[in-house]
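tool_log.txt
---
The assistant was asked to compare two proteins side by side. It first ran the structure predictor on the initial sequence, then on the second. Raw inputs and outputs are pasted verbatim so the downstream comparison step can read them without reformatting.
(1)
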Amino acid sequence: MASLILRKSPGHSDLMESFLDRCVRKNPYSSVCWKEKVDVLRKKDPNLDIRKELEEGKKRIRFISFLRNKQ
C-alpha cells in the first residue's frame, strides 16, 4: 500500500527505494516486494541492469511454490 502511495508522488522516489529495500530485507520471500522493487528501478533508469533483482525474486517465488506443494 505504501508503495502505491509513494508511486503517485514522483518527488519521493528516494523514499520509495528505501522503503522497498527495507521491504525486501524484512520480507525476503515476498514476491510483491521484489516485483515492486524491480518496477521502481526500471522506471528510474530503463537502462539499468536489473537481472540480479529479477533472479532473486524468481528464487523466492520458486521457494514459496515448493513450500505450498509440500503441505
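(2)
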Amino acid sequence: MSLILFALGWSVAGYIFLGMMFAAALAAILGYCIGCTIYFQFKQFRARQLNRE
C-alpha cells in the first residue's frame, strides 16, 4: 500500500502507512498480538454491558 501511495506521489501518506506497518511488524516480533487484545477488550465490554442490564 505504501508503495502505491509513493507511486501516486503521496509521500507523506506513504510514510505514515509505512510507519504503521513497521509498528505492527515490531509488535508481532515482540510477541504482542493486536487481535488478541482487541478480542479481550471486546469480551470485557460485552460483560460490562450484560452486567448493566
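---
observation on (2): The chain has one domain: 2-52. The two ends are 44 Å apart (CA to CA).
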